[in-house]
Every structure is written in C-alpha cells, then in structure tokens.
Specification:
The complex is a heterodimer of chains A (253) and B (316). Chain A has one domain (3-249). Chain A is built from 10 helices and 2 strands, in the order ααββαααααααα. Chain A has helices at 3-15, 18-38, 55-84, 87-92, 98-128, 138-163, 167-183, 196-202, 206-218, 224-249, and strands at 46-48, 51-53. In chain A, helix 2 packs antiparallel against helix 3 and helix 3 runs antiparallel to helix 7. The radius of gyration of chain A is 18 Å and the shape is elongated. Chain B has 2 domains: 2-220, 3-Layer(aba) Sandwich (Rossmann fold); 227-292, 2-Layer Sandwich (Alpha-Beta Plaits), CATH 3.30.70.980. Chain B has helices at residues 42-49, 71-75, 93-103, 108-121, 137-148, 167-182, 194-200, 218-225, 241-244, 268-281, 296-313, and strands at 2-13, 16-27, 31-35, 57-62, 65-66, 78-81, 155-159, 186-190, 203-208, 211-216, 229-235, 252-255, 259-265, 286-292. In chain B, the strands form 3 sheets. Chain B has a 6-stranded mixed sheet with strand order 6-7-8-3-9-10, with helices on both faces. In chain B, strands 2-1-4-5 form a 4-stranded antiparallel sheet. In chain B, a hairpin with a 2-residue loop joins strand 1 (2-13) and strand 2. The mean pLDDT of chain B is 87. The chains are: A mainly alpha (253), B alpha/beta (316).
C-alpha cells in the first residue's frame, strides 16, 4: 500500500471513534429537526434565488456545509494530538516524508468531508426533497464544495494546531474561530435582511461561500455570483493550504 | 561492515553547539552504548542519525546510505524508540501494535503473529484491550518499545528505552534486545543507567558538552580510566588503628561490626601491602579482604569530571 494511504488508514482509525460519530451526526440532526421545525413558526419561508424555501429545507442544506466544516476540525486535532503524544516525530522517523504526512491529512479531511456531506444530505433529504431540483450540476457542486471546503477549513485547523502549544489554548482558539464561522454565516439564516454590518461579516466568512455553493447545487440556482464564490473558495483553499504546508514543514522537532 | 559512520558531525542551534564535530562508527551486529550527562548532546546525536534533524556540518552514512541525500531510504531500514513517549491515545494496546505494523506495510498475517508474540514477550496480555490513555507510564513505555519490533529493520535506535520500567521488565527488555542482536540486528543505545550499558553494550561512547570524550569497549574503558581500585579490609575491633597504620597514608577507616579499612587510590596494591605488613607486625588478624571492581559508573563520573575540569581550565 502507498505510504499516503497507510497514513490515511491510520488517521481514520484513530479519529473515527463513537464520540466523533455522535458529534458528526447528532449535532446536525438536532439543528435540522429541532431548530429547523422550532423556527418554522417564526420563519415561514426564506427567499433563495427565484424560490422560497421553507426553513427546515434551508437549514438542512446549510447543515451540509456546517458539517463539512466541523468534520475538518479532525485535521487540526490529528496534528495537535500527534505533536502532543509524540506521534509526529515517530512518524517522521518512520518510512514517511513530511509531504506524505501533510497529504495524508488532506486526503483524510477530504474523505471525512465527503462522507459528512453525504450523510447530512441523506438525513436532510426528507426536508428538502420537495424543493430539490436535481440537475447536471447538483453532484459536481456538492462534491466541489465538500473538497474545497474540507481543504480550506482543514488548513485553518492545521495552521492553528501548528501555532499553539497548550491544549487549553488550542481548544479555546479553535472553538472560538469555528463558532464564528458557524454562526456568522448563511448556514443558519440568509444574509438578506440581516443588519448591513452582519451581512458584510457573512461574506468575510468562507462557510457562507461553501453553503451557497451547496445550496446552488441542491436547489438548481447556479448564478454568476455562485461562480465567483467558487473562485473565492478555490483561492482561499489553495492559499491556506500552502500556508499550512509551509508551517507544517517548518515545524521544529 | 559499518552500520553507522559519522564524520566531523556538528549541529548548532543559534550560538549553542549541541554536537561538536564528533566521529562515530558502529559495526554491524553490535550494541553501541551512547552515554552522557543531561544536555550532553545524546538526543541531538540520535536525531541527527535518524534524519530527524539535519547536521550543520559533517556527514552521516547509515547502512551505507548517505542520510542527507537519501533520508527516506535510511528510515525504511531503521527502527527508532524515541526518548519521549509516543502513542495513539484512542487505540487499545493490541490495536496500536497492529496499526503500527500496518503503517510499516507489514502483511496482515505477519502482523497478527507479531502482535501475539510481542504481547506475550513484553507481558502486555492483561492490558491488550485497554486504551493507551488508560494504562500506566511504564506500561505505555513497554508498548512503545514492543511496537518497534512489529517491523523488520537492520538497525535499531533506542533512546533510554528502559526509562519508567520496573526491574523485571527492564531485565526482560535487555535480554530480548540481546537475543535480537544475536540474530544480526545492530543497536544504538542511550541510557542513564550505566549497569545496563555495562550489561548490554559491546562498545561505549561518552559524550559531554557535544564532544565525545571517551570511546571503547567497557573493559578497555575500565583499563584506561579505572586505575583507582577500592580494597576493603575487615579486622576485629581495634581502638587505635590510626597509630598502627601511621605513615601508610591514603586509606580511610570505618566501623561496622568491626573495623573496616578502605583503600581507594591508583596505587592501592602498594598501600595494601604496607597495611598488611603493619597489621601483621601488630598481630592484628585480617577477618575479610575484598576488592570492589571498578564500575562503569565510576569511569563515567571520572571521565565527565575530567572533561568538565579541562573545559573550565581552557575557559570554555
């Protein structure tokens, strides 16, 4: 087996425990089915392109992006744990290069991101099946968002994990950053109608672009704006990945 | 054949010289002990040899391969047990051995057999289903060392492998290592426990302040640096032994179920003869006489002390 796949196998084995699966499934399910229906009495419909979506369908599609982002936390956690528990050095004195270690993390978050997206799509499907409009771009857009989103957020988590030394600091920073990403985005509510400063903040957040691309795929709303958002996602993912790779390559042993 | 060959190897961190132009050669199928006080440069040397850090200058050849040109090729042929703990907290002991074998591309059948063998050899059967996070530091160390034997290798680096192990586990590990060497494995071994080095190593290097200050077999080191022998003479209770031994010099007197005269000097044989003559002429019988062999620990302390003294006198 190629060294990268052996490392991916290892990453998945050490990461996929019951706690992680619960985190990945229960958390979005609560949002989709509890918050989704609870807010229906307040939010009757959400304008989206030429359509009006009901709130459960809106939040269920938002949860796909939210879950991709959450799942990529695993990248930072793997690097953090490897450094903390001595496995980073142990792997680097083994039959692997740093580049293979970095790429294995990218593949791992890509796989977890795709599986997460598929899982939430399946869970949320009953809620948005009435509004869904399958077309030639549906799957490519969701896959694109899953992979670029996974690399982008995985790189952010990796950067944080290389910069911080204490576990308390790592937890505080990563939770704060990802909390901002989660709630200052269009995953839970539309930008339209939000106070102008907040609406601007939504568009400083990569999760907004990720969620917009996913929704464009599911609800057949591919526009020029969505095209620009895809460019922003790719640019962000590539830039952050290069930074994360450089930081990981320079990590002192 | 030389397994390790390092020439003029140096490594600096800013202005600090961690390893200062050392030369090393380790023959295949031997156990090479690398000793030194804390901060002497042992771990940095280990990191250089295992390609974890690059040398500031000098060359390293491991198993005939240049480490700076082909580090990955070197790493594929070696095993390393680092000084710091390394473990997968979420995996059980059994699974972590299995997973490590997978990482080294060991085939599943061999992996399964080796897991069983190592669990048994390293006395890990009772904790095989426990997670690494839930076992003691000593047990974790045993797992870390056992894990390295999941894969084949030609050269094994052990950085204080017995740290945290109880005496029985320590002896078990040392005997297991000896057995592996008989099968052709070469071992580069660092330790603070000098009895271990004496028990295990074919050759020993002592490093201090980044420089190798002594290198030879344990016996030769004792011959070179162990001139001071300790001789103990037990006699009955004699009240004024110092007047009996007046003029002999270079001895100490202690009292423990009789009088014990201890000679500790480079010319201990000559002092012994003088003391025995004095005792005989005063009709004092000798009850017991013993020679304490020079231990590696004494050699180590002497060599390091001399090295520190010469550094101070030269103003380093």
């Amino acid at each position: 087996m190629h060294p990268i796949f052996r490392l991916v196998n290892r990453n998945l084995t050490i990461s996929l425990n019951m706690g992680f699966v619960i985190w990945q499934v229960i958390f979005p399910v609560i949002y989709i089915f509890v918050a989704g229906f609870a807010y229906t009495s307040l939010i009757h419909s959400v304008p989206f392109g030429s359509k009006n979506l009901n709130y459960p369908a809106f939040i269920a599609s938002g949860m796909i992006g939210f879950n991709i982002m959450n799942s990529t936390l695993i990248s930072g956690i793997i690097i953090w744990n490897d450094r903390r528990h001595g496995m980073f050095e142990q792997i680097l004195v083994g039959p692997f290069t740093r580049a293979q270690y970095i790429l294995s993390n990218v593949y791992t978050i890509g796989i977890i991101g795709l599986v997460s997206a598929g899982l939430i799509t399946a869970i949320g499907y009953p809620l948005f099946f009435k509004s869904i409009e399958f077309n030639a771009l549906t799957i490519p857009l969701v896959v694109f968002a899953s992979i670029t989103g996974a690399i982008l957020f995985g790189s952010i988590a990796s950067i944080i994990s290389t910069r911080l030394k204490s576990s308390e600091g790592f937890n505080v920073v990563i939770n704060t950053v990802f909390l901002f990403f989660a709630f200052v985005s269009t995953a839970f509510y539309p930008a339209e109608g939000a106070p102008p400063i907040l609406a601007i903040a939504f568009y400083l957040n990569p999760l907004t672009y990720l969620v917009d691309v996913v929704r464009a795929g599911i609800f057949d709303n591919f526009t020029q704006t969505v095209g620009y958002e895809m460019i922003v996602l790719i640019t962000g993912a590539v830039t952050l990945f290069i930074i994360a790779t450089k930081l990981l390559s320079r990590l002192e042993i | 054949m030389l397994c390790i060959e390092a020439k003029s190897l140096s490594r600096s961190y800013g202005n600090v010289i961690a390893v200062d132009s050392i030369d090393l050669s380790v023959e295949q199928g031997k156990i090479f002990g690398f000793l030194g006080p804390n901060g002497a440069g042992k771990t940095t040397t280990m990191k250089l040899l295992t390609t974890l850090v690059s040398p500031s200058s000098g060359t390293i050849t491991i198993l005939g391969i240049d480490t700076s040109r082909y580090p990955l090729a070197v790493r594929k042929k070696i095993g390393v047990v680092l000084q710091q703990p390394s473990y997968e907290p979420t995996l059980t002991v059994e699974k972590s051995l299995e997973e490590y074998g997978m990482m080294w591309d060991v085939d599943p059948k061999t992996r399964k057999d080796r897991v069983e063998e190592l669990l048994s050899t390293f006395d890990l059967q009772d904790i095989r289903k426990k997670k690494n996070d839930d076992i003691s530091i000593g047990q974790r160390r045993r797992v870390q060392v056992a894990r390295e034997f999941m894969h084949d290798m030609d050269l094994l680096f052990l950085d204080e492998p017995t740290a945290g192990l109880d005496p029985s586990a320590r002896r078990g590990l040392l005997d297991y290592i000896k057995g592996k060497v008989q099968n052709g494995l070469t071992i580069f071994f660092t330790t603070h426990i000098l009895e271990e080095a004496e028990y295990l190593c074919d050759k020993i290097a002592i490093i201090n302040r980044g420089k190798i200050i002594a290198i030879d077999t344990p016996d030769e080191l004792k011959n070179k640096f162990g001139r001071e022998k300790t001789i103990k003479i037990r006699i009955g209770n004699v009240k004024d032994i110092s007047s009996v031994l007046q003029g002999v010099g270079n001895y100490e007197v202690g009292y423990d179920e009789g009088t014990i005269i201890t000679i500790h000097s480079a010319d201990s044989e000559q002092v012994l003869v003088k003391i025995l003559q004095a005792l005989q002429s005063n009709n004092i019988p000798v009850e017991d006489l013993s020679v304490v062999p020079t231990s590696l620990e004494e050699i180590f302390l002497t060599v390091v002390k001399n090295s520190n003294a010469s550094n101070i006198s030269s103003g380093k």
